[in-house]
Amino acid sequence: MALKLWHCAGSRSIRPLWTLLEMGLDFELETMLFPPRFAHPGYTELNPIGTVPFFTDSSDPANLVSMTESSGISQYLADKYGPTDLAVLPSEPAYGEYLNWLHRSDATLTFPQTLVLRYTILEPEATRLPKVAEDYTKWFFSRLRSVELALSDGREFLCADRFTLADISVGFALHFAELLSLKDGFKPYTLAYVERLKQRPSFQQATANDGSQNILEGL
User: Fold this and answer.
1) How far is it, in rounded angstroms, from Cα 192 to Cα 37?
2) Its pTM surpasses 0.90
3) All domains of the chain, ordered by start, with CATH?
C-alpha cells in the first residue's frame, strides 16, 4: 500500500489520520505506544528525530516521500490526492485565512500544550515545573481567543463556509486540550464547535483509542 502512517493514540498523528479517513483513501496504519522512539524498536531508523507522526508515500518508486509534520501531511494529502473540499484553493477568498489556521494550529495552539504535557506528566516528579505549566496554560488560552472570535459570528466552521483542513488541524489542538483536562477553559462558541467536530464519524474513528491508550498513559 502506497500510503503509510505511523501513529500514536492521542498524538498529533490524529491530524493526518483524520484527513485520510475523511478523504476515504487507502492507507496502512501502524499504531505504536508512546513515546515510539523508546517503545517501538527500529522507529528511529525510519524517523531519526523519533517524533510522531511519520508518513510515507511510495506511489512513485523513484521519489519516496517522507514527512513528519502533522498539518503538512494533511495538506500534502489534500493537494496530492484531491480535489477535495477539505482544501481551500488559492482562487478562493478564504485561502489566506485557511493557511493561517493551518500554521496557527501547531505553532500557536499545540506548542504551549506540549510544554504543559511535559512539565505536568512526562517529566519525572522531581523535575516537573508547575509554574511553567501554569504559564503555558495561560498562553494557550490567550491564543485560543482567536478560535472563539472566529466562531462568534455564528459560522459553523473556521473558514470557507465548510469543513476543511483548518478544522482538522485546530480540532486536534482542542481535542488535545481535552486530554490535558483543559476543556473547562473553553468559551461557549469554542465548546459548541468542539462538540460539532466530535460528531464526525472520521473524528470518532481517528480518536477511538484515545480514552484508554493515549500519550498520557503510554509511558
Assistant:
1) 36
2) yes
3) 3-86 (3.40.30.10), 95-205 (1.20.1050.10)
Q: Is the bond preceding 188 in cis, omega lying within 30 degrees of 0?
A: no
- Per-position pLDDT tens, the chain of length 219: 899 999 999 999 999 999 999 999 999 999 999 889 888 999 999 999 999 999 999 999 999 999 999 999 999 999 999 999 999 999 999 999 999 999 999 999 999 999 999 999 989 999 999 999 999 999 999 999 999 999 999 999 999 999 999 999 999 999 999 999 999 999 999 999 999 999 999 999 999 988 644 555 543
3-state secondary structure of 218: coil
